[in-house]
Amino acid sequence: MFSIERLRILRELADRGTVAAVAEVLSMTPSAVSQQLKVLAKEAGVALLEPDGRRVRLTDAGQALVLRADDVLAAMDRAVAEMAGYRGSPRGQVRVASFPSGAALLLPLVLRALEGTGVEIVAGDEDLPPSEAPKLLADYDIVLTHRDERAPSLTGPRIAARVLVREPIDVVVAHDHPLAARESVRAEELAEETWVSVRGGFPVDDVLESIATITGVRPRIAQRLNDFRVIETLVASGYGVALMPRWAVAHPGLSVLPLAGVRAARVYEIVTRPQADRRPAIATVLDAFEGAARAVSAG
Question: Running DSSP on this structure, what letter comes out for residue 114?
Fold first, then answer.
């Protein structure tokens, strides 16, 4: 019979990668973590870890047991939530991570939808490339992330993902730019522009790479910044052009030009553990996000 706490330690190791990191988050010593993992391997009757330089990594058996640990711990969370419902107590807190511009767009609507439900969001802003988002599930119940619409979904054995909404990505220029009066712009017309862009790995940068492929010209990027408010200010001041998600544009000094001939959009995606939506509080928050996304797209 496996100990639930030892299964939790194993899952933390899968999420965080090192015994030291697991010890820190669980307020244990590294030696105590290692001892508990050894006991778990004895319970399993098979090696769960193997040396990897100075560290350890999961064996195939260890990876298989992590999947079962996800199931067991999710079931325990659901049981706790159900018993709380019988006691008439609030349905609990849900930890939500989101990228800043997505949080600015959706979180106010989500919080409004949750008023009076007994579900409380503990929000965190995490500005990471989409490929890094699943790692946040070590600390959050729900992760709102974004990806280029051509990129694959983040689903996997330990990840469940659902698409919320598609947001076009447009070109923004200052009002006195030669293209400012246009209704749209083609990639070929941007080959000689100076760009203010985001860091690599984010959806906006993926679209800029598509422009480079079409034009055959590497974009001349003057600045890489991840704060859209700063990017807007620089563009409005005449220091280049930029790609911006349509709903993130707020500066009055900008002209917004849809990009013709290129699939230019980012997809908002919600990432959780598999079956996390069977926990009532998480299901309530997911429903609120879906409602917020519908409201935004309809507006």
Answer: H
